[in-house]
Amino acid sequence: MPVRSAMTEERDSTDRFDTQLERLQRQFENISRMWDLERFGLSESEMTSIGIDLIDHGDEFELTANVPGFDRDEIDARISENTLTITAEREAETEAKEELYLKRERAHRSVSRSIRLPEPVDEENVTATYENGVLRLTLPKQQPSDVGGHTIEVE
């Protein structure tokens, strides 16, 4: 029959306590994170990603991006080297109106999504609209003569 020392039992007890404490901390972090998301009225998946649809209409692409909870001026869309990047950023602050407030909170929310376009687009003629949390971009494709320079006539 193995003999257990008081030190071994104490260490086992401490290990069990540490494991329980770690589990409790993770649960508290999850609850805290979800509470922050609920202030924006969003689920965690909505908070961390931008869902997109990309349609090829032949002479142009149409991209639809879901960016709920942001105002138009909080959204930035850029094209560089045939990659479209959409970023949305918002800061929120709540505070009690009393002079000696007990609670004051700040939140920062940022989401971003980059997508490599399947063909070069005419960056100068891209248009975008934003309504009801949906960003729509029309991305005209570059004409063949615009891609790769121009033809040189040989005499």
Automatic annotation (TrEMBL):
Cited Gene3D superfamilies: 2.60.40.790
Transmembrane segments: none
Coiled-coil annotated residue ranges, if any: none
Domain SHSP: 43-155
SUPFAM superfamilies: HSP20-like chaperones
Similarity section: Belongs to the small heat shock protein (HSP20) family.
Protein name as catalogued: HSP20 family protein
Organism of this sequence: Natrinema hispanicum
